[in-house]
Amino acid sequence: MFNISTFLDKFKTLGMADIAAKEAMVQAAQKCAGVILQKEKIDYKGGIMYIKTDSSQKNQMYIKKDSIINYLESDFNVRIKDIR
After folding, report:
1. Which of 36, 51, 62, 67 has the lowest tally of Cβ within 10 angstroms?
2. Tens digit of pLDDT for each residue in 31-77?
């Protein structure tokens, strides 16, 4: 007989990759650029991180963008194309 709980297990982890990527971005921004972000102000779509913050913090992150991306890939195994 088919057990519905095994079918629904795949939906439990559906959004976990995005949440983990956002948390990794918060840590990477703080370590590499000295910018403190909130998870709620980050959108992760199609491999691109969209940051909703003031322009001075965005500029600081843009200057350190390469080091942030490398840090995310090496330490958290999060692949992103760009930070906007």
Report:
1. 36
2. 999 999 999 999 988 889 999 999 999 999 999 999 999 999 999 88
Report yes or no: 33 and 56 within 8 Å, Cβ to Cβ.
Answer: no
In the β-sheet with 48-51, what is the strand arrangement from edge to edge?
Answer: 42-45, 48-51, 82-83
Round to whole Å and give the CA distance between 1 and 14.
25
Q: What is the model's pTM?
A: 0.79
For residues 44 and 21, the answer to whether their CB atoms sit within 8 Å is yes
| Tokens representing residue 51 in the block | 């940051």
What pairing do the DSSP bridges indicate for beta strands 42-45 and 48-51?
antiparallel
Cα–Cα distance, 21 to 47 (Å, whole number): 10
Tokens at 74, concatenated:
């090496």
